[in-house]
Amino acid sequence: MSSALQKISIDELQVGMFIVEMDISWIKSPFLLHRRAIKSKNDIILLKKSGAKIVTIDLNKGQVYPINLKMQDRTSENYH
Fold first, then answer.
1. Distance separating alpha carbons of residues 42 and 15, to the nearest angstrom
2. For 7-60, what is each residue's pLDDT tens digit?
3. Among 8, 9, 27, 62, which is least packed by CB within 10 angstroms?
4. Which strands, in side-by-side order, build the sheet including 5-9?
């Protein structure tokens, strides 16, 4: 199964999403790894405080879809 990646604003990030990339260096990141599940609202707060504006999420690994993702995209074979 291939990954389905989507860039979203930090304001669209939700608990349950799985991030694979951030627009900040690993030195500025509040986390050791840039590939991780967002487990709490505090994770999002820490990312905002670190200066992150855009993150890339993996739709196949996350438990939550972005609000702007079309329903037809959610039901395609990439998301099963």
1. 9
2. 999 999 999 999 999 999 989 999 888 899 999 999 999 999 999 999 999 999
3. 27
4. 5-9, 54-58, 18-22, 36-37
The residue whose two tokens read 């196949």 is 60
Q: Which domain holds residue 63?
A: 5-79
Residue 75, pLDDT above cutoff 90 = no
For 26, list phi and psi in degrees, rounded to 5.
-65, -25
Query: Contact, 19 vs 57, CB < 8 A?
Result: yes
What total of structural domains would you count in the chain? 1
Segments of 23-74 assigned E as strands: 36-37, 54-58
The structure tokens listed for 48 are 């905002």
Q: Which two tokens stand for residue 60?
A: 């196949």
Give CA torsion, residues 26, 64, 43, 32, to 10 deg.
-30
